Amino acid sequence: MTARDIALIGATSAYGEAIRELLDEREVPLGRLHLLASGESAGQNLPFRGSNRRVAGLEGFDFAQVGIAILAVPAAVVESLRPQLIEAGCAVLDLSGASAGACVLPRINGAQLDDLPPATWLGVPLAAAQAAASVAAVLARLNTLVDASLTACLAASGAGRGGVEELARQAAELLNGRPVEARLFDGQLAFNLLGRTGAPAADGYTAQEHRLLDECQQVLGEALPVLDVTAVQAPVFFGDSLALSVRGQDAWMLEQVLEALGDEPGLSFEENLDCPSAVGDALGREEVLVGRVRRHPRDARRLECWLVADNVRLPALTATQLAELLLKQSA
């Protein structure tokens, strides 16, 4: 095993492309980067650090030769690779949500990495979970949180390239007067909102809602005792939008809240941008944009805000930052 070598599985996915670009932009001091994909994606040439790298086939790759494997593939693919990855003994960064390992957001609970073994399996939180947890962590330093409610309007690209293609196809069908055929989503998504993202479990929560709930509470720990989550499928290609409501033990001091949000790394709060939008303001950004911060008019202990984030760039950045930290540990 070469500890500084990295395998990027799903190199041609939206997450994979963003991670490759960030590894290059941030000049991450890695050894060799293995670009891996399956099916027709294998064989493509992708740019990295001034040259083209060939995407190799996933089948037969020996993970024992790398120190870190970054999984930018669906959960089903992750499960099929799990035995090989465990046997290889490399560290794993999983963006799929299939991981049962620790869920780490470096600027909030990154200290957990110090207590984990080198061959650890880390979950990379969804952009929506990162956005909510980042803001809640700031608020928890100002006031003891009692509970919170999160409504997450999630982009079609969260379902991969298939989600983007289905939204585009449905929009074209409607604009051309043809009936809409739903393949990936539960129904018509174009020019519509779907009140859930996938089939519900026995408790009524979808897998996406369970993932948001688990990731937020893993990152925040006891700082957020209770969280309610509703995930809505939104008819946008890229960019998540969230309404977050938190209740504190004491009344919120609004000026103090605004100052803390404005000073926090990873967040962008601009007084002249009261209501940022995912498509118009967040795409391509590495910060969570915060707006519409206000106290409830009838309960000064409740605070409401609006968050938007690039749903691809943000998880890709976190995966890259985690890789940097793991590489530093192995140095």
From TrEMBL:
Question: What processes does the entry annotate via GO biological process terms?
Answer: amino acid biosynthetic process
Q: What class of enzyme is it?
A: oxidoreductase
The record's family statement is: Belongs to the aspartate-semialdehyde dehydrogenase family.
The EC designation for this entry is 1.2.1.11
NCBIfam families the UniProt entry points to = PRK05671.1
**Name this protein carries in UniProt:** Aspartate-semialdehyde dehydrogenase
- Gene3D superfamilies recorded for this chain? Dihydrodipicolinate Reductase, domain 2, NAD(P)-binding Rossmann-like Domain
Q: Which InterPro entries match?
A: NAD(P)-bd_dom_sf, Semialdehyde_DH_NAD-bd, Semialdhyde_DH_dimer_dom
Upper lineage is:
Bacteria, Pseudomonadati, Pseudomonadota, Gammaproteobacteria, Pseudomonadales
Q: Which GO terms describe its molecular function?
A: aspartate-semialdehyde dehydrogenase activity; NAD binding; protein dimerization activity
Task: Supply the source organism for this entry.
Answer: Pseudomonas oryzihabitans
Is Oxidoreductase tagged as a keyword? Answer: yes
**Positions of the Semialdehyde dehydrogenase NAD-binding domain:** 5-116
Please provide the record's keywords in A-Z order: Oxidoreductase
